[in-house]
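pasting Phosphotriesterase for the record, 309 residues
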Amino acid sequence: MTGDTARGPVAAVRTVLGDVPPGSLGVCDSHDHLFLTTPALPGQELDDPRAARAELAAFAAHGGRAIVQWTPWGMGRRLGDLPALSRDCGVHIVAATGLHQARHYRHVPDGLAELFVAELTAGAGLIKVAGAFHHLDDHARHVMTAAARAHHATGAPIGVHLEGGTAALETLDHLCGAHGVAPERVVLGHLHRFPDTRLHLQAAQAGAYLAFDGPSRAHHAADAHLIDCLAALAGAGHTDQILLGGDTVTAAARSTADGPGMPYLLTTLRPRVAYELGDDTAEAIFVRNPARAFAAPWPRPRPTTSDAA
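structre below
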């Protein structure tokens, strides 16, 4: 279902096994990590393929059919391991390009926009960027500007790490106001860490997707406000802009260790959302919304999953 037609490119979700129709994505964890390494978290690396496989299999066993791995360039994505994991576990995986905050790198490469476009053309399906606490520092503005250029060249969605859930409106001003990215192509992450429902409504009214992610973080009390935040958005007519993810960033947070891990989204959060807000809202958050948020009219289609090697 991808490729150029008389009416232009058809929207698809770009996975590590090729482009797939949005409607085939299924139940999705919209922000998580199978692999991640950074000097900012020494000794807490996600770099074990067997552990990643076990976690992904546990997610699949509870009905999970897709995850979006937000691990960007230079942070141990292990892109070469992702296709086999996807195939073996029967779970679509969307990989990311982009850059995180400067503290996660020993050096930042030149030509970021060209790097992002090359990786998107080769199989990444998301551009990951990051803000600073309550503002955008020079690094964030530099990376976001490159991300906007790459977005305009490819159509790829942009996922934003909001530090502490802050600077959401500043991010939209930079990406959308200054650089012309359509707000519906932006996914604002970590909003649960700053549970200001009025600010969430402003971001939703601007047109962005809002991702609430992070039940794996024991030191974040904001999960207690999650349902209230979702209810405020749904009550204001923004159900179709909400996403949920696990954001598992340490080995201890996995379900196969001591944490809730990826399955928690389906064993605990989805039933709670359905109970509090209704089955249709749960279906929107876990199925319909990710299918739209992570789809793009890619100008250079890759093979569909069935055709991929």
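The two ends are 18 Å apart (CA to CA).
The longest strand covers residues 28-32.
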